[in-house]
Amino acid sequence: MNILQMFSYPFMQRALIAGVLVSLCAALLGVSLVLKRYSMIGDGLSHVSFGALAIAVALGVTPLWFSIPVVILAAFLLLRVADNPRWNSDAAIAVMSASSLAVGILVISLTTGMTTDVDNYMFGSVLAMTKTDVVLAVVLCAAVLVLFILFYHKLFAITFDENFSRATGLKVSRYNTLLAILTALTIVLGMRMMGAMLISSLVIFPALTAMRLFRSFRGVVVCAAVTSVLCFCMGLTISFAFSTPVGATVVAANLTLFLLSCLFRLLRR
Amino acid sequence: MSANELIVCENVSLGYEGQSVLTGLDLTIRAGDYLCIVGDNGSGKSTLLRGLLGLIAPQSGTIRRAPELEKGAVGYLPQQTKAQKDFPATVFEVVLSGCLNRKGMRFFYTSAQKSEALMNMGKLGILELKGQSYRDLSGGQQQRVLLARALCAASRLLILDEPITGLDPAAAQDLYKTLAYLNKTEGMAVVMVTHDLKAALRSARTVLHIGRRGTFLGTPAEYLASPQGKRFQDELTSGPSSTENNSSANQRSVCGGKGGAREHVQLSPQAEAKQSRLCDDAGRRFQEEQP
User: Fold this and answer.
1) Phi/psi at B26 (5° precision)
2) Fewest Cβ atoms closer than 10 Å to its Cβ: which of B57, B94, B218, B282?
3) Quick check: B88 and A164 CB within 8 A?
4) Using 50, 70 and 90 to split pLDDT, how confident is the model at A262?
5) Which CATH architecture has domain B1-74+156-212?
6) What is the ipTM score, two decimals?
7) What predicted TM-score, i.e. pTM, was given to this entire model?
8) Measured between CB atoms, does B242 come within 8 Å of chain A?
9) How many angstroms separate the CA atoms of A168 and A176, rounded?
């Protein structure tokens, strides 16, 4: 078949390398985010990165260099909001999402006009990955993997019980900030290919699937990573074979696996 | 501070953002103590715990903590969060995370820490649950797992925040027995915030009541005689488990009369002792019930 042929295209090679690495990072970070009930932060960040991308294109600066600081800033803000008991964090995140989406659309319509660009930003494009993106994805993935392995036990403790961790002397807010920065980077990198509307599924789906299959934290982490990479590869291949949008296809693959895991759990009971 | 003092609070005021919840508190927690903190909702029990844990600084006064506590050797049992209910982690993973405070700059657990975790699990009778998932356990078992984790973190002080919330009576009884055992045989100091007054008075050696009407610190018997504790006497004696309703009725009225003065607040030790002598019989009943 044309599977081998598929990777003779340079853009497909780039998409595969960057996509696999971003999926891996998203899944690892996603386990902590989902368990800490921070799923909405991933979603909020993707909307912010859409707005940032639109402004960057309008200003004529390299999208990545503009989006990354903006989204990291937003991550800080969202984390503060989510941790503040006096704020209605759901509402705050929803407001932030909608506002950045609106700003993005306004900027696009005032400058380049509503062209296919918007469609690409929203729902992703396999052609979007540049060489810089791939290099950045490799660096980011290495950073996430190293940090995750070194701080695995601390991340577990903080994810399971922030209060206990704080009382026993862990610098909880430091690790939360680290988590937010890495998530922001993952989302900025992944969104060009997956689309602003769909990138958060990379963070959330693998963790949910793994939680239905495994009982231990380690099992869930490993399973989420494997599931995520597998779904991305499946999605990319199918999207190439049937000329479907890559973002939506990857999400569909994730959804299929999630539903299967639900079924499995139901049968096991 | 001397070697057996764990936490010393002197004239401490605690609160948030300039608003004081708790003022003028003097409290010393020593090795082997068993202290129950009671009080109405919003009276500052949780705030006090956060202060004892060193998570918030006092607005005035000083809280001195033993050097080991400053390093994070606190056996803290927080209230369970919603997120923990369906958390995918094995019992061993959870208990082991209690050893984290002694990991220092190491990134992985040593085999000594692993065997310590196993030992603490054995102590609490959850060794056979080692490989099971935390989310599949009953409320009582989950609480034991968290207690084992707390034991890994500390050897001298346990701080518990409403530990029996959500437990059925049998599981709660079980937990109290375990705490009494740890307190007696291992000399573990226990500090517990609780709403379960009956059990608190039965097992605690000291009661701290904090509330709008003032603070009280003394033995359970003294507490029942104090203006703050007096109103619980009826509640405590009218339960079906009480067999001495008639005999205590008389003494109750004596105590009621004494405490009815409602002036109050921080009683001096002498005054407390005097008051307790008057109501000694009413209190002794609860002492006898202690395991």
Assistant:
1) -115, 125
2) B57
3) no
4) very high
5) 3-Layer(aba) Sandwich (3.40)
6) 0.84
7) 0.81
8) no
9) 16
